[in-house]
Write a structure and sequence with these properties.
- The protein has 220 residues and is of the alpha/beta class.
- It folds into two domains: 149 residues, Rossmann fold (3-Layer(aba) Sandwich); 65 residues.
- Helices cover 50% and strands 12% of the residues.
- The protein is built from eleven helices and six strands.
- The chain has a six-stranded parallel β-sheet with strand order 3-2-1-4-5-6, with helices on both faces.
- β4, α10 and β5 form a beta-alpha-beta unit.
- α1 packs across α6, α4 packs across α5 and α10 runs parallel beside α11.
Length: 220
């Protein structure tokens, strides 16, 4: 699989200096966990969300979801407590059981052998991602890890990608981004980056759009 993927992406990455990777949904098979996280939290307190609950909170940040959970279900806790408890549930998964997508580790190792600078650019929290990638054996191949929190902007702005370029000593023109999220891909393209789309089931309804937008696509 690794050589097949390399053959596909080589025309895009050849001559580039830095390869920038999203984590959730790109390298890490974590989106099913995130889809259920709020439900697991509520069910743990005895609440039973409606079937469309996931749809309503899918695009919310953890903070916004906490507000919704408190107001809609009448959870008698401070917002900060709700957010912390949800994040703690996620943290356990990142430290204990979340796995990379099949073939992702082999690709990272091979790209590093080929001399590329590899940087992680994530909307997740630094310590959670770092520990998860360490446990999965690929953090040692990364030249840096940048989060949206560190740059003070979500992926609706390109700041996290630009910071990743800075860490790799590369310009926008010298970098390629690997992303699964439609809106993040759009942000990167608008900032001038070449982007390789990565398939994830959570974005399958947008896959045709992603294929049209990106230079090449990867399915692990």
């Amino acid at each position: 699989m690794t050589e097949y993927i390399l053959d596909k992406i080589n025309p895009i990455i050849q001559g580039k200096k830095a390869l920038i990777f999203d984590v959730d949904g790109t390298l890490l098979d974590s989106m099913p966990m995130w889809a259920r996280l709020d439900i697991d939290y509520l069910e743990g307190m005895g609440y039973h969300p409606e079937p469309d609950f996931c749809t309503r909170v899918k695009m919310m940040t953890i903070s916004d979801a906490s507000v919704y959970i408190k107001e809609y279900f009448g959870v008698d806790k401070e917002l900060e407590t709700i957010t912390e408890e949800i994040m703690e549930l996620a943290r356990v998964h990142y430290e204990k059981d979340l796995l990379l997508k099949p073939g992702a580790a082999d690709l990272i190792i091979r790209l590093k052998e080929l001399g590329y600078h590899l940087v992680v650019a994530t909307a997740n929290e630094y310590d959670m991602v770092q520990k998860c990638l360490e446990r999965n054996g690929i953090m040692e191949y990364m030249d840096g890890l940048v989060t949206c929190t560190m740059v003070g902007a979500s992926k609706q702005k390109p700041d996290v990608y630009l910071k990743a370029c800075e860490l790799a000593g590369a310009s926008v023109e010298e970098a390629v981004i690997f992303e699964d999220s439609n809106f993040a891909i759009n942000t990167a393209i608008n900032a001038g980056f070449d982007v390789i789309g990565v398939y994830d089931d959570t974005e399958k309804d947008k896959w045709d759009i992603i294929c049209d937008m990106t230079k090449e696509q990867v399915v692990f």
